[in-house]
Amino acid sequence: MMVAESNEKHSRNENKDEFLKQFKSCFFSTSRLALFPWTVLEQELELSESSQIILAVLKQTCLHRLCKKFPPSARYRKLFLTELIRRVEAADCEPLDELYDSLAEVVSAQEAAEGYRTFLLPCGGTVSLLENRALISEGTTGLVTWEAALYLAEWALDHPQTFTSRKILELGSGLGLTGVTVCRSCSPSKYVFSDAHRSVLQRLEDNVRLNRLLENDATPEVSVEQLDWTDVTDERLDEIGADVVIASDVVYDPDIIAGLSQLLSRILRPKRGRISPEVFICSTVRNPQTYSGFKKQLGDAGIGHHVMGGAVGHVFQYDRVSSIELIQLYV
Predict the structure, then answer these.
(1) Using omega within 30 degrees of 0 as the cis cutoff, is the peptide bond preceding 188 cis?
(2) With contact defined as beta carbons under 8 Å apart, do 331 and 303 qualify?
(3) C-alpha–C-alpha distance, residues 210 and 149, integer Å
């Protein structure tokens, strides 16, 4: 009987740790409120001392040291705390001062268009990014993190051998989520972040620096470059010497597909004494016609592709209802 009770207690502690971890992951990545494990919270409030559970949730979210250093936007924190209070009051729990104090602090905070998102990595590290809450800001979509970047980062975590000890070029790096994840977890020898839009490039560099990848003694060797697909020279591509080229959510505008296809053709073109790099493109298929047009442009340029099937490990918290496809290109 005592062994059974001990095993049950151990199992409950593991479940509690897991649901607190999910709250932390969802909160710092500013996931939709529907993705939080609210049902598990309500069960815990019934089975355990409610004040201890609520305080434990706060310590993994608003009272966590990460929230002081890289806080999600005040608007997001207010939404989260309001929902948490609603759930706690619905469970008829004793009020907890720390919970209402946290809400009062957020309500009095100045609203800003920007906020941090922090993603937890399996290695124990984190990726923190400052991003704009507006989907389109300063004339670009590059100031937010898109689902395909998260998917590609998860695929990289599942396939570190693709990047280990190799030179990586990322096209359209955006805010840097995929690249920082690869640098943190996959041990490349060199990583080149790139983008063309000036405001995106500045935010990208700030985020790479925020994650301490531009320090003198940092490994791997990292650079952030302005790279316009239509005018980058073959000499510059040769200087980078990428073994692997990746990109995510770059196939969204029919007007840029031709330039992207031409660049990929140049990258994949066989060169004397060099093996063509591996090229992976990850896309959220929002407009099937645009995506089909991209694949047709690739075919017209003599570039083949195959879809990288198989599920990826669910490391990050984000909506998985969108159609996301990862393809590898070849000539």
Answers:
(1) no
(2) yes
(3) 18
Alpha-carbon distance of 213 to 180, in angstroms, equals: 8
Query: How confident is the model over 132-175, as pLDDT tens digits?
Result: 865 433 333 444 678 999 999 999 999 999 999 999 999 999 99
Q: DSSP code of 216? A: T
- Determine the Cα–Cα distance for residues 59 and 70; give it in Å rounded to an integer: 15
CA–CA gap between residue 255 and residue 274 (Å, rounded): 32
Residues in the chain: 331
Specify burial of residue 253 (Cβ count, 10 A radius: 0-12, 13-18, 19+).
exposed
| Rounded CA separation 215/8 (Å) | 48
Distance, in Å, from the CA atom of 202 to the CA atom of 205, rounded to the nearest integer, reads 5
Distance between CA atoms of 208 and 167, rounded to whole angstroms?
17
Q: How many CB atoms neighbour CB 64 within 10 A?
A: 15
What is the rounded distance in angstroms from the CA atom of residue 189 to the CA atom of residue 205?
Answer: 19
Which pTM value belongs to this model?
0.90
> CA torsion sign, 261 to 267 to 270 to 271?
positive
**Tell me: the pLDDT tens digits for 196-226?**
988 899 999 999 999 999 998 888 999 999 9
> What whole-number percentage of the chain has pLDDT above 90?
79
Report how far residue 195's alpha carbon sits from residue 192's, in angstroms, rounded to the nearest whole number. Answer: 10
Q: Is the peptide bond before 277 cis (omega within 30 degrees of 0)?
A: no
